[in-house]
Structure formats: structure tokens, C-alpha cells
Design brief:
7-stranded mixed sheet; 2 domains; 425 residues; Aspartate Aminotransferase, domain 1; Aspartate Aminotransferase, domain 2; binds pyridoxal-5'-phosphate; alpha/beta
Length: 425
């Protein structure tokens, strides 16, 4: 392995402060460090009267020179915020504001360092994995999961995926025992990814289930390194009081030195800013360790996407600072809750064509089709015969995204589904 002395310096500091975290690093993460190159030197010279460091086209006084149409379109924004580069780890203000938001959600966040800004949540997961996941490592996933995890951990990072049933056999809730048993069988360092509220199931654990999941992960860490990726993409979109709206990440902070929790979240769904591409990767370690991991993240960001999108971070800062923010989020949550209740009601009468899996949060619900029906076949027929689009999950399940449906479209969708299933043998 070609280790520069700069990387070695970071590794030695990390090994001294948290040997378990150092030992868990992937070969790539061991090599990674943020060099004293152009962004570093430009930052050091930022306050200089004459600054000839960075390849950013300006008027010579630090202001951009926007072209005409872009300047017109963005005339309501400060040109510096709209047009200039973001620091590699993200703008200080958005990192601080996001951290403050998480502290408001749970005081345990006070001991945790600032996140690295990523280009969306997928990038946060992928970067967290690049830091800790080595080829051949094993990731534990429930059997109902976002298909992109296969791309990240299987295809990109050449890992193995071990699955356990998402729900208990009686469909009463999340299968904590399944997670415990699968963890018990895994040998050596192991990675666990959990996304709550879940895509595709639309399920978020109850308060007790969340505590039990955390305890299982802590138990497993007694014998080995456990890296936990908390994908909080759908954070806050919860529709029942029995369900926790808090992240699993908070339950894992400071629980065991072998347990490395990573929080992957962002504005995509939570701030309904899908094209903004602002995500956050927070390390559930001491602040000193987090600083080294952010330094290594900067290496991966700079070598991958260059730097995160500056203008979107500025817009997110403005949204988070707006006094209407909480109210505005709540209004969006309530729109989804109304659709959720209509869908629950439309699916409430027993139906021989499918089983509705428990859902209580997020954007989706999952139907398991009766034996003899193919989800792919039903999906195709829904498009051609009923002009209805849904997504199949394997050949047994259909996922309905109620987040993108008008209230009036929900019952017709369920009726169309019944018709197509009834016609199919
Ligand atoms: C569970 C889950 N995680 C992450 C993401 C990705 O978020 P982003 O678009 O910010 O990369 C999605 C998007 O659908 C998702 O469903």
C-alpha cells in the first residue's frame, strides 16, 4: 500500500485516539488525507488583499463574474453565495445549522462533531462505505431494502450481502431477532445498514423496537467491529404516535468503542429539495476522531466530485434559518399523513389478492401479492391496462409511493390494482 507520510500522520493520530476506528478503515481510507494543495492554500490566503491562489474567475476582489442569464435568474441571491466554490467539506454555516438541528432532535448530538457535506444522501452512504468497507466485507440488510444498496456495497465495493426477514413472521413489527441471529452468525468485522422510515416498506420502529435494535448492535460490538449506517433519508415523516421519529444513530452514540455509527441524512426528502443534492455524513465518534474522518472524507470528495454544490447549501441555510421552517415541514408532513390515512383506509378491507405489510411512516407501502401472481407482470399490466404506475420489489411485492399521489387518485389506484389482480391467474 502506497501510504504518504501525511496519511500516515492521520492514521497514527487515529490509532492513538481510537484504535478500533483505525482498524476498521478500508485500504482506501488508510491512504486518504486532504493535502495542503490548492483548496487548502486558497483557504489560508482567503483574507489576503491580493489573492492569486484559486482558479475561480472573479473581479479581483472576491466577487464572481456571472454571465448574463445566470445573473438574471439568480439576481435575488448574493452572487458570492450563488456562484463561488464551496469548501470541500461543505460551507461552515450549513454544517453548523445541520448539527444544531440534530442537537435539537437529541441532546446526545452535542458530543458529536460537524458533518461532512455530500452531494445527496446516496453519496453520504457511499462515502461512509468507502471509508470503512473493504472488498469481501459483509453487509447485513433486511430482505426489504432500497435497491441502490446493492449498487453501492455489492457492485461498487465488491461486498457480500446477508439478508434477514424485515418483519417478524406474524407481521407484528420489525424482526429484531432476525437481526440478532444474522449478526450472531457473521464472523469478524460486520456492517449493518438500517433505514427508518424504510424504503420500500414504509415502516419505522416503535420506541421499544428502536431501543431493542440498538441493544442488539451494542451486544454484537462486544465481540467485533460493527459499522452501522443509519440511512435517515425519510427522517421526520412519521404518522403514528407509537412510532419513534428519532434516528437510531442517537441510540448508538458512545455505547461501545467497537461500534461505529454513521448518520447519512440530508435535504432530499426532509426538506423536499430533491434536486438540491445536499446530504450530510456525521460520524458517531469523539470530535477528535470525527475531525480526522472528515479530513479523509475531504480526500474522497475532492477526488470524486471536486466539491459539493455551493448554491444548494446556501439555499438550505436560508431554509433552516427561516422562522417558518418547522411549520412548513409540518405542513408537508400533514399532506403526506392525509394520503397515508386514505391509503390505509382503502387497503383496510380484507382482500384475497394481497397482504398489506405494516406501514406507518415515510413515503411507501408494500403489498405482498398472493401466490400465483407475478409482481412484474401485474406492474406491466397496470401500465398498459389501467395507466397506473407502481414499482415491483422482486416478484412478490408491489411498492406504492403515496408521497407522489393526489388524495383523489389513491382509491382509483387500489381499485385498478384489484381489477388487474382479479383478472390474473
Ligand atoms: C432509503 C433511501 N436512502 C437514500 C436515498 C437517496 O437520497 P439522495 O437522492 O439524496 O441521494 C433514497 C432515495 O430514494 C432512499 O430511498
Amino acid at each position: 500500500m502506497n501510504l504518504s507520510h501525511e496519511a500516515q500522520e492521520r492514521n497514527e493520530r487515529l490509532e492513538a485516539e481510537a484504535p478500533q476506528v483505525f482498524n476498521a478503515l478500508s485500504p482506501l481510507a488508510r491512504r486518504a488525507y486532504f493535502p495542503k494543495g490548492i483548496p487548502y492554500q486558497a483557504n489560508q490566503a482567503a483574507a489576503c488583499a491580493i489573492n492569486a491562489t484559486i482558479g475561480q474567475i472573479t473581479d479581483g476582489c472576491g466577487n464572481p463574474l456571472p454571465l448574463a442569464r445566470l445573473g438574471e435568474l439568480l439576481s435575488g441571491l448574493s452572487t458570492q453565495d450563488a456562484f463561488l466554490y464551496s469548501p470541500i467539506q461543505g460551507r461552515p454555516k450549513v454544517r453548523q445549522l445541520w448539527h444544531e438541528k440534530l442537537v435539537r432532535e437529541d441532546a446526545r448530538m452535542e458530543s458529536i462533531g460537524l458533518p461532512a457535506v455530500t452531494a445527496g444522501i446516496c453519496h453520504a452512504i457511499s462515502m461512509g462505505a468507502e471509508l470503512f468497507f473493504s472488498p469481501g466485507d459483509t453487509l447485513l440488510l433486511p430482505d426489504l431494502y432500497w435497491d441502490n444498496y446493492e449498487q453501492i456495497f455489492g457492485i461498487r465495493l465488491e461486498g457480500h450481502i446477508e439478508r434477514y426477514p424485515f418483519y417478524t413472521a406474524d407481521l407484528s413489527g420489525f424482526n429484531v431477532d432476525g437481526l440478532r441471529q444474522t449478526l450472531g452468525k457473521a464472523i469478524g468485522k460486520v456492517h449493518v445498514l438500517l433505514d427508518f422510515p424504510s424504503n420500500p416498506s414504509g415502516y419505522s420502529p416503535t420506541h421499544d423496537e428502536m431501543k431493542a435494535i440498538a441493544d442488539v448492535l451494542v451486544e454484537a460490538a462486544a465481540a467485533r467491529t460493527v459499522v452501522v449506517y443509519c440511512d435517515d433519508a425519510y427522517h421526520g415523516l412519521v404518522f403514528e404516535t407509537s412510532v419513534t421519529s428519532k434516528s437510531l444513530f442517537f441510540e448508538l452514540i458512545g455505547r461501545h468503542s467497537n461500534l461505529i455509527p454513521l448518520k447519512c441524512d440530508g435535504v432530499t426528502k426532509e426538506l423536499s429539495f430533491f434536486g438540491g443534492r445536499v446530504g450530510f455524513l456525521t460520524f458517531g465518534t469523539s470530535e477528535g476522531v470525527s475531525e480526522i474522518l472528515v479530513d479523509k472524507s475531504k480526500s474522497l470528495i475532492r477526488s470524486g466530485i471536486g466539491s459539493p454544490v455551493g448554491i444548494s447549501q446556501y439555499l438550505v441555510e436560508e431554509e433552516l434559518l427561516d422562522p417558518r421552517h418547522d411549520e412548513s415541514f409540518e405542513a408537508m408532513r400533514q399532506i403526506l399523513e392525509r394520503r397515508y390515512r386514505i391509503l390505509k383506509n382503502a387497503l383496510s378491507s380484507p382482500n384475497g389478492q394481497w397482504t398489506v405489510h405494516p406501514f406507518n411512516a415515510g413515503c411507501f407501502c408494500l403489498l405482498e401479492l398472493r401466490n400465483g401472481l407475478s409482481a412484474e407482470d401485474i406492474r406491466q399490466r397496470l401500465i398498459t391496462e389501467e395507466s397506473v404506475g407502481v414499482v415491483n420489489h422482486g416478484d412478490r411485492y408491489l411498492r406504492l409511493a403515496f408521497c407522489s399521489l393526489k388524495e383523489e387518485a389513491i382509491e382509483p389506484l387500489v381499485e385498478a390494482l384489484k381489477r388487474v389482480c382479479a383478472k390474473s391467474v
